[in-house]
Amino acid sequence: MKFFLRFTLCIIVSLFFVRTARASPDFQANYDISYAVSPSGKTIVTQNITLVNKTSSTYPRQYAITLDSTDIRNIIAYDPKGVVPVEVKNADGKTSLLLSFNVKVVGLEKILPFSLRFETDSVAKKLGSIWEISIPGVPKDESIGTYDVRLSVPDSFGQNAYVSPSPLSGMHWNKTLLSKGGISAAYGESQSYSLSLSYHLVNSSGADKSMSITLPPDTAYQQILVSSLNPEAEKVERDQDGNWLARYSVKQNEKRDITAKILASVYPYPRSSYGKDAIDASRYLSERPYWEVSDSLIVDLAQKYKTPEDIYTYVSTALSYDYSRVSLGTERYGAVGSLESQKSALCNEFTDLFIAIARASGIPARRVVGYGYTTNPKIRPLSLIVDVLHTWPEYYDEKKSLWISIDPTWANTTGGIDYFNKLDFSHIAFAINGISSTEPKSAGMYKDTSIASKDVVVSLSEEKPESVESSVLALSFRLPKQVLSGSRVQGFLEVRNSSGLSADIEGVKIESTSHLVSLSHSVTDIPPFGTITIPLSYIVPLSFGSSRDSITARAGSSTAKGEIVYISFTLILAALFTLLVLGILFFVLYRFQKK
Fold this sequence. Notes:
single chain, seven-stranded mixed sheet, 41% strand
């Protein structure tokens, strides 16, 4: 849960002479704030504040602060004369504090130092195996001078996954670093989720159909284990965007309900074990519905914003999230429509606008539809009310040969938290749209309109995919037993992944002892329960002796062997000669007996 402090430097002043009270520009406030987090997550917040008089005739009497949480306790404040009375009010989910000082400090540039201390459980939250920390940025107040923030966390939190913005030294930030937003930090390696996904295939036509569902795929940011797929798919294959498509035969006027149980591990940065994404860049620069690359508005923006980060910054600040639209439906405006309704954007508009500008700038980009695990939808909203889904864009980094995920929507709604240089542990990809702007559909979008159902259920898990199961490949040849020398061999190798994990391999190699076969197939991964078929076709040279050939296939640690007998050409000639002689003898005997 994100925790935002809204400091209201509402200093109520009394004039040295009897005059109307004046506002806070009469003072400058310098802040030194520390956040000390305990192993349980309880955080002690200490604000050491110095008020500097900017006039010679006023002095501060009170100090007001509003905190965006009611989880505030053990509040205490001090000024040079001791404990300061604090009036506490809770309303509308906020806590208002009013401090009444014990001293009167009068005179130009005179200072009043004081401190405020309280405890809260809202700064640090443990979600599954991850500790998340959120600290507010600098309040928009001209009276603020210096503003320093320090953070300390226990070693038991584990390794720091990310912290944004990067601190000056240690865990120390100043006003410049915090002027664009607050501090977001996380500790841990990965977050695991248990997914229960329901799909409803409805064939209302008068003919049988082959239909497919989209399973959440492996990406650079997530690893997937398909624990079960009920009923089993006839075929599972990977499309050009990397989606895993499970195919089913659906008879005419039939409905089929399918349930997938899935375990997902999510990472904030691309996994080092993932490898690289090879793409045809031209296919991710084309215009598509909702991505109006050639529109003059988009072209003008593309000439101004030429890098992924520039486009991300523009989109996340130009559009405004419209919470009132979430409950009204999921009408998709598209990139141009988002520019025409900048104050009424949802995640689709942030995503589509980024993709259109990026493509117009020559940067391959695509759309991810999935789920954002959030404990505070007001700060990190889910915009698609069809089973509360979320969308975000990806751009292709040519140097890394990877698709990089970013989220301009949450950058906007969190007040500037960095979702460009890292993602987080909360984004679970269900489907990727790149070749098409609308297909394939994501889990949660396979609805049977005749029933009301919740088709996406996500919960935290302690298990990790790789600790539950390892990928298992089964290789088998389909080859003729005997082939005449001088003729063509026709067959294939079938490689089946019988596990729920994607099988990552360095291609498939096929070789024969006769050196007639030596090939490498470039497939690098096979989806869970997926099968690939590699054709074999070659000509056996003419031979005057029979031979036996052994063919071996290797994929990862799995192997398969097949044998073929090449029948000698001379044996065939001898057989033909023998048949000819026997035929002549039979004919002679037949004629002799007839006479």
